[in-house]
Structures are given as structure tokens and as C-alpha cells.
Amino acid sequence: MEDEDGMDVFVGRLDPEMCVVTAAAGGERAGCLVGFSSQCSIHPVRFVVWLSEANRTFRVAREADVLAVHLLAREQRGLAELFGGQTGDRVDKFAHVRWRQGHGGAAVLEDVRAWFVGRILHRVDGGDHVGFVLDPVEWGGARESRRAARPGAGEGPPLRLGDAAAIQPGHPAD
């Protein structure tokens, strides 16, 4: 059926948690705000993130072996605006945040609610987004890095799609 208005009623009720996905490959780093992601297997644990083919993070992720996925707290809207409202084609987003190199060269953001690095198992075409199915290999969060973070960083309620709806995508429009 082609009744997209009907599907909008369903999709409009969803308010998923937002995350920042980072990729590193060939000497390049990239990251973007992602609203499409989910655990997709229990045993073994698998997670999928959907990246828009229009942004730089997708281009870097195509060549990467691992991706890092970071959950944000609602109070971290500035971080969401940086990774969602700016394009890595013009701005070095990593110059504005604390980050470190993780497993497999992944770019892991400090001061986030929780994060994991996942080995890319599969890439799945989903229309204008590609799903990257990940096998988690390293993880952590604000609590384990508190000695270096400001107290309470990233520990509030999660940032959701509704909280980030006003952020205009930083990647060029098609």
C-alpha cells in the first residue's frame, strides 16, 4: 500500500532514543546523530544502526571495520546539535569534544551516557539508509570514566527523537 499518511500515524507515535554513531577509516573520522537503531538479536547480542547515504559518516563507515554507538542524555542537546546539525565535510566535530581511540581504531566520545564499539558484521540496504549490523566488542559509559568527566555528565534521561526534532540535518540535501 502507498498510503504514507496512514503509516505516519504509526511512526509519529514512536520516540526512539537518539545516538551518535562514529566511524574511522583510511585516516578519516566522522560522526552523525542517528534516530534509527535497535538491538536486533538477543543471543548473540547484535545491534543495528541505520546511516543515511547522504552523509559523510556513511561514506567513512563503508570502509570501516567497527563503529562506535553513543547514547546521549537529554541535557546533551549541544552534542546532538554538533553531530546532527553540522556536516563533517565542513566542520571537524571531534575538535569540539573529548574523545579517545577505542577498539579497532573507533572514535569513542567521552562524557556520554553509555557507548559501545561494534564490529560490522553486515551492511543491509534499507532504502535511503543502510543498516550496519554490529557485534559489540567493547563498551562503557559516563560512570566508568567519571574520574575524567564532570560529575553527572550524561546521566540524565535519554535524548529522544522528540527532543532533537528541531535540529536541521547538517548534511547537504539531495
From TrEMBL:
Record-linked SUPFAM superfamilies: FMN-binding split barrel
Alphabetized InterPro entries for the sequence: Flavin_Rdtase-like_dom, NADH-dep_flavin_reductase, Split_barrel_FMN-bd
Annotated region described as Disordered, given as residue ranges: 144-174
GO molecular function, one term: riboflavin reductase (NADPH) activity
Flavin reductase like domain span: 11-150
Keyword field: Oxidoreductase
SMART domains, sorted: Flavin_Reduct
Protein name, entry field: Flavin oxidoreductase
